[in-house]
Amino acid sequence: MNLRAILCALVLALACGRPESPGGPKSAGSGAGSSGSASMAKLMKDRNLSEADVTAALKTYTPSGRKDEFLVFASGGHSGQLLVIGVPSMRILKYVAVFTPEPWQGYGVGDKGSAEVLKEGSRHGKPITWGDMHHPALSETKGEYDGEFVFVNDKANPRIAVINLKDFVTEQIVESKLIEADHGGAFVTPNTEYVIETSQYAAPLGGAYADLKEYNEKYRGAMTFWHFDRAKRRIIPDESFAIEFPPYMQDLADSGKLTSDGWAFCNSINTERATGGVLEGNPPLESGASQNDMDYLHVVNWRKAAEVAKTKAKVIAGMRVIPLQVAIDEGLLFFVPEPKSPHGLDVTPDGEDLVVGGKLDTHATVFNFKKIQGLIAAKKFEAKDPYGVPILPFAESIRGQVELGLGPLHTAFDGDGNAYTSLFIETKVAKWNVKDLKLIEKISTQYNIGHLVAAEGDTVAPKGKYLIAMNKWALDRFNPVGPLLPQNFQLIDLSGDANGGKMQVLYDLPIGLGEPHNAQMIRADKIKPWNIYKPVGLDAVTKEKSPFAVEGGKERVERKGNVVDVYMTAIRSHFTPDVVRVKEGDKVRIHLTNLEQAHDATHGFALNSYNINASLEPGKHTELEFTADRAGVFPMYCTEFCSALHLEMAGYFLVEPKKK
Ligand code: CUA
Q1: Which atom of ligand 1 sits closest to the CA of residue 642?
Q2: Phi, psi of 285 (to 5 degrees)
Q3: How far is the CA of 605 from the centre of ligand 1 (A)?
Q4: CA of 505 to the centre of ligand 1 (A)
Q5: How far apart are CA 173 and CA 89, in angstroms?
Q6: From the CA of 334, how far away is ligand 1's center (Å)?
Q7: pTM for the full predicted model
Q8: Cα dist. 232→23, 138, 227, 555 in Å?
Q9: Which residues does residue 173 pair with via DSSP β-bridges, in sequence order?
Q10: How many A from CA of 550 to the centre of ligand 1?
Q11: Cα–Cα dist 429/193, whole Å
């Protein structure tokens, strides 16, 4: 579309109103086409907008009240929280509290349910107040997103969290005591039987100590398969297992699908087994780890491993672990050489091929699952690694390579047989055809793109249309905010409309949380969240009516010894009771139910100076437990502007001093 056509279309839309936008403003004062066109031209001139800018605006602008077509679940990086972003508008819709306290959701600030979830995520009993969230994984059914759950990993404190998309609440965190860092997670198998978590930095399994001199003998990696029970909405650690790996740095992982269902894959770097130690006369880790031309793609038969784990695993730190030798003997683990210090590993939508980004190699290498299976079946191994893992011949395992440019990392797919690979060093996205391995075009991003996500691009049925480049640098993109800059999510149009069939950057979304990593993009109509909690008194973590739910008219205060139970309700615009009297040193349990059933009628409950703020969505029940260890007069009030009498939705919590 040229500029004139865009303007005409815009003017026409303004003149005619928007039939698809009931309730929206009709003709916004532009009468004849010519005057609208003239004012558009002036607006473009005044705001210094090019034709491409206006095209981008038309493709992303989302009028008030209009919903987005896709939702992105993006890592919130160090915040330990999960971002929900609408596409194409790039509006941030929510920060979901996961690994760290989040005050607005009342997560970890007094509420007992979320405190217990966060406690599950403590590390060897030590509370962890940050995360390094990397890779969200939406639950899948038959290889397609089903919109029910999302799983995320924390690289720094190896953990996996389960978030229920009925209410976007984190219901469970599992801590891996087996490994000391993860990276290849979270990735789900095609029916979400397992959530994969693969170690990154090798260490003695189970948290044992061994000096780096014993690295080759005592340090190990592992791939963990956390079993997810959908009916129970939980990961079941006792039904999970892991496979011991040699002490390479295992990197990104993916599960097979369709043809390759039942198998999982991960990359590795540092097959040199460098340990660093620059002051001890060793090469720095980064150069020690970059000596070999090839590292090893790990090929894992998880379906068979799940059977082997029943009889031949040994329990380490509470996890059933298939020892490396058993994995070799049972044919669960094979290596294929891969060039060189690779990073991303992405299985194609048909499950036939595995695309590995070279990072220090200019190619994406396309491994073929059937070729790999043929070599395994024929026992055609070219060598063994130092631990005895059979190595398949590289040349016979690949379908080919495509030269893309500098620093290929991650690959996403559209529904038309195209792949999109991020080029970190070149700071571009390369579009190429998977079938004939031909580079089609490249588009520049700003800057240093890491992950990228396409609409449902890692499922069996990618939707194409949009791609988001997740960029690490943003030096000249936004207003300066000090030396620590936001990072930049760039929306890229894949449709080729209005840009001669080529990709176009449409929008820059600054992300004020570092460092967001990966994301997944799902069709918004697949997510069917609750509007309210029903029946009244539902517990957000258990998804059951709380045994302590309070009915209107049955509010009360009960004392047993020094334990005070306060059965309280909230409804516009009061708490009942609104005056609570306790004694210094009492153990207080506030059982608090929001009686509202109106959509969005959320109240908050703050108890001043006691570090308590609950979020009470309609119908929700929350439990607040604390010791009244400071005497005094403490206002308690509603922290959501819920009504005209919101400020009056308050009361007093009186703590009578102990008699001296
Ligand atoms: Cu309830 Cu403000």
Answers
A1: 2
A2: -55, -40
A3: 8
A4: 42
A5: 31
A6: 59
A7: 0.94
A8: 43, 17, 11, 32
A9: 161
A10: 18
A11: 33
Give the pLDDT mean for 559-578. 98
pLDDT 10s digits, 493-503: 999 887 888 99
CB 102 within 8 A of CB 114: no
- For residue range 368-408, list pLDDT tens digits in order: 999 999 999 999 999 999 999 999 999 999 999 999 999 99
Give the C-alpha separation, 534 to 578, whole Å.
25
Atom of ligand 1 nearest to the CA of 646: 2
Cis peptide before 447 (omega within 30 of 0): yes
CB atoms within 10 A of CB 519: 21
DSSP structure string for 540-557: TTT-SB-TT---TT--EE
Atom of ligand 1 nearest to the CA of 640: 2
Residues 6 or more apart whose Cβ sits within 8 Å of residue 613: 103, 106, 109, 110, 604, 605, 606, 639
At 641, list the tokens: 């502007």
Tell me which residues have their CB closer than 6 angstroms to ligand 1. Answer: 573, 603, 638, 640-642, 646, 649
Atom of ligand 1 nearest to the CA of 570: 1
Contacts of 22 (CB under 8 A, 6+ apart): none
Q: Which of 472, 479, 477 is nearest to 75 (CA)?
A: 472
Q: What is the pLDDT of residue 34?
A: 59
Contacts of 454 (CB under 8 A, 6+ apart): 412, 413, 414, 420, 462, 463, 464, 466, 467, 494, 521
Atom of ligand 1 nearest to the CA of 603: 1
362-374 CB burial, b ≥16 within 10 A, e <16: bbbbbbbbebbee
Closest Cα to residue 352, out of 417, 441, 290? 417
Confidence class for position 347, pLDDT limits 50, 70, 90: very high
Q: How buried is residue 584: exposed, middle or buried, by Cβ count under 10 Å (0-12/13-18/19+)?
A: middle
Q: In angstroms, what is the span from residue 495 Cα to ligand 1's centroid? A: 45
pLDDT digits (tens, 9 = 90+) for 613-657: 999 999 999 999 999 999 999 999 999 999 999 999 999 999 999
Percent of the chain scoring above 70 in pLDDT: 95
Whole-number Å distance, alpha carbon 577 to ligand 1 midpoint, is 15
Decide: 253 and 184 in contact? Cβ < 8 Å.
yes
Cα 33 from Cα 336, distance rounded (Å):
64
Nearest CA to 255 among 296, 225, 230? 225
CA 589 to centroid of ligand 1, rounded, Å? 21
In the chain, count H helices and then E strands.
Answer: 10, 43
Burial of 560 (0-12, 13-18, 19+ CB in 10 A): exposed
Question: Which ligand 1 atom minimizes the distance to the CA of 573?
Answer: 1
Name the phi and psi angles at 467, rounded to 5: -135, 140
Write out the two tokens for 135: 């890779």
C-alpha to C-alpha distance for 114 and 532, rounded to whole angstroms: 18
Question: Which token pair is 352?
Answer: 């036939």
d(CA 399, CA 397): 7
Q: In sequence order, which ranges of 49-88 are alpha helices (DSSP H)? A: 51-60
* Residue 641 CA, closest ligand 1 atom number: 2
User: How far apart are alpha carbons 258 and 142 in whole angstroms?
Assistant: 8
Contact call for residues 342 and 358 (beta carbons, < 8 A): yes
- Residue 637 CA to ligand 1 center (angstroms) comes to 8
Q: What are phi and psi of 534, to 5 degrees?
A: -145, 130
Distance from the CA of 616 to the center of ligand 1, in angstroms?
A: 10
Residue 433 has a pLDDT of 97
**Residue 407 corresponds to which tokens in the numbers above?**
């620093």
3-state helix, strand, coil in the chain (%, to 5): 15, 40, 45
